[in-house]
Amino acid sequence: MQDFAAAFSHAFALILSGDADLLQIIGLSLQVTISAVFVSCVLGLPLGAFLAVARFPGRQLIVILTNAAMGFPPVVVGLMLYLLFSQAGPLAVLDLLYTPTAMIVAQTVLVTPIITALTRSAITDLMQEHGETLLAMRASKWQQITTLLVEARPALMTAALAGLGRAFAEVGAVMIVGGNISHVTRVMTTAIALETSRGELALALALGIILLGLSLLINAAAIGLRPRMLGHVHAR
């Protein structure tokens, strides 16, 4: 028990002192995760809205695949990207393996289906309410998509926060394509796994406390958006 108490004490000391290694790991984690979620939103929001509004052959198959992709095992995604980016892979010329960019790509692959599926669900609900009005106004598909995306802002923020939480918790894929290299590709989740395996609990606990705090903030933000979503619905 004394060892655990000492580890917790050291962990809080690292946080309060602004330890350089701790801050570097946190900074890279934020850079990778926020970049991946931003790209996922750029891809997933319009794609989800398009799947909700458009009707075309193969649409249902894409919806099924998107929903299935939400449960992709991260290590499998990491392995597939490793094969693509490795020296024998078709994308070796990009020289992305063991870089933050490869980690961003891995998280984007994992997060985009989540944002796409949640966006499609939100826009589908709005389409049932406003679809006839938009058709009566002879709005084009892209005008419908733009209008509904604006109307669904609170729900889309919740989708983005869900993606953010997923990205922060990811470890398997980013460890495979990033390599967990100190001061290069080491993020909070991979550092926690490494430090725990080495028995260095202080840094692992410090990062765990920070990660838990970020998770609580994300969940609080998502819960805080719910009254706004309900108020938005009642206002209409």
UniProtKB/TrEMBL annotation:
This is Tungstate transport system permease protein. Gene3D superfamilies: MetI-like (1.10.3720.10). Pfam families: BPD_transp_1. InterPro entries: ABC_perm_TupB-like (IPR049783), MetI-like (IPR000515), MetI-like_sf (IPR035906). Belongs to the binding-protein-dependent transport system permease family. PANTHER family: PERMEASE COMPONENT OF TUNGSTATE ABC TRANSPORTER. The keyword Repressor does not apply. One of its GO terms (cellular component) is plasma membrane. NCBIfam families: ABC_perm1. It comes from the Bacteria. It is found in: Cell membrane. Coiled coil: none annotated. The chain crosses the membrane at residues 30-54, 61-85, 97-118, 201-225. It is a multi-pass membrane protein. Its main location: membrane. SUPFAM superfamilies: MetI-like (SSF161098). Keywords: Membrane, Transmembrane, Transmembrane helix, Transport. Residues 26-222 form the ABC transmembrane type-1 domain. The keyword Ribonucleoprotein does not apply. GO terms for biological process: transmembrane transport.
